[in-house]
Amino acid sequence: MASLDSEFRDNEILLTGANGFLGKVILALLLDRFPDVRRVHVLVRPRPGLPSEERFATEVLDSPPLGPLVEKLGRETVEGRVNVLSGDASRPRAGLGPDQVRDLAGRVGLVLNCAGLVEFFPPVDLSLRANVDSVERLLELCDELDAKLLHVSTCYVAGKADGLVEETEPILGFHPRRTGPGDDRFRADIELADIRAAADALAQGIEGAQRAEALTELGRVRAARWGWVNTYTFTKSLGEQVLAAQDSVPYAIVRPAIVESSLRYPFPGWIEGGRTAAPLALMALGGLLDWPARRDISLEIVPVDLVAAATLAVAGELLAGRARQVYHLAGSDVNPYPLEDLIRLLCAEARANGNRVTHPPFWLDPFPRLRFLDSSGAERRRRAQRRRIAVARRIMERLGRSARAARLRVLELQLGFHEETFRQYMPFILDNRYVFETVNIRATYAGLSPRDRQALPWDPESIDWPVYWRSCQIPGIRKWIQPEAVREWTFQL
Q: For 452, which of 107, 175, 360, 406 is 20 to 30 Å away at the CA?
């Protein structure tokens, strides 16, 4: 394989989603490890009162993951290697003008699409715009630029599955309830036309919060009908099928699992926002003992810097014309970490670090201990706890003990939050045991030079998970996740 240095030196890259969690690390890693990269164009959507250039400066250049690079090279040098394009990936030509497209044609060899809406259950029109419309528009742009498309999706397009998820599963016509190659019930073009028409009809009939609620429910129902666990994975799969339905633009798809805090780059523990595992981790760190979860499931976590490195390695392979269609970026097939071990570690960390962990009062849970429950057992315990809390609150109100009643009301709200959180996460910790095949990314790395493997390490098999959680994930959550989220997710009386 040609060296990645030469591929990145000979081809300009257009990057979408550079202001996102993964996009920032990809941009920093690319500029840091490949100083001769020809040119990076970053597509940034402007906001009211905030032009794209200012948004890039504040959300990307001034962000913590770019800090070491800016300090190393100087701000002017970094700015000089990046061209900010004002646009929107979901609009025709990604919002670029005809003159801009003509200027980029023949220069940009790769469009790297990191943009998307990761929320599990958003209004379906927003999810379609971010995860499907953008793919359609970027394909049109790539066709005009004569560029290839590297698309970041998710492993969880597999939907409801239990066991090994193979990279060779056909994309076109896939749905999680598919019974085999002869099952042609699902057509992405028909499904898209139907759901877009339904969303348009809802949008015209109602307004405001009621409209958003109806569109959210529409996405939930359509996803569940075919076997996807949420609107996010449903629309991501539709975006993949839009790619697979065409043959004019060469493409590859990288599917990360759960992208979490960095292992090494730009520094250990970088994380942004309430990433996928953060609510679960914070509930465990706060003393939650009842878990509707399977002990043997491995929460498929991959450090963000490993995902960024592997994505750039696939980018080089795609530019060289050797890319495979799909790359899973996961680790439990070679280095599993059972959920029981993880939750016990988090509970031990909570005690060891002196967290203010307050167990439920005796009347609510006489024998507090860590429990792994099935869905029916978890629901029985929740119903019993809700009844006891409601009775106790009413008694305190009648006795005029308003402070005690208020604390019980907080406990009711926290119990409701835990229930809603588990409803969203049960597909990943109870209902399905995913093991994602990662043959293709290992084959890619086997063909890289030692220098490229060192510049872009992909080594999930060597991660010591207890050390990673204690040294990277837990400190990262405590430092970078907003304190308001910590207070909301932590179980305190």
A: 107
| C-alpha pair distances (Å), 318 with each of 2, 38, 150, 218, 250 | 11, 17, 8, 36, 8
CA-based nearest residue to 174, from 188, 162, 163: 188
Q: Look up the pTM and report it.
A: 0.93
State which CATH number among 3.40.50.720, 3.30.70.20, 3.10.180.10, 3.30.2350.10 fits the domain covering 4-257+300-333+437-462: 3.40.50.720
Q: Three-class SS of residue 292?
A: strand
The full DSSP string for 136-161 is: HHHHHHHHHHT-EEEEE--GGGG-S-
Radius of gyration of the chain (CA): 24
Place of tokens 């469009």: 111
Domain ranges, ordered by start, for the chain: 4-257+300-333+437-462
For residue 447, what are the contacts with CB-CB under 8 A and spacing of at least 6?
Answer: 1, 317, 322
Q: 285-324: per-residue pLDDT in tens?
A: 877 888 999 999 998 999 999 999 999 999 999 999 999 9
| 266 cis-preceded (ω within 30 degrees of 0) | yes
pLDDT band at 280 (very low <50, low <70, confident <90, very high): confident
Task: Let me know if 268 is exposed, middle or buried by CB neighbors in 10 A (0-12, 13-18, 19+).
Answer: middle
Q: Which runs of E-coded beta strand occur in 46-179? A: 82-86, 108-113, 148-152, 163-165
Q: Position of tokens 């539709």?
A: 238
The b/e string for 109-127 (b: 16+ C-beta within 10 A; e otherwise) is: bbbbbbbbbbebbbbbbbb
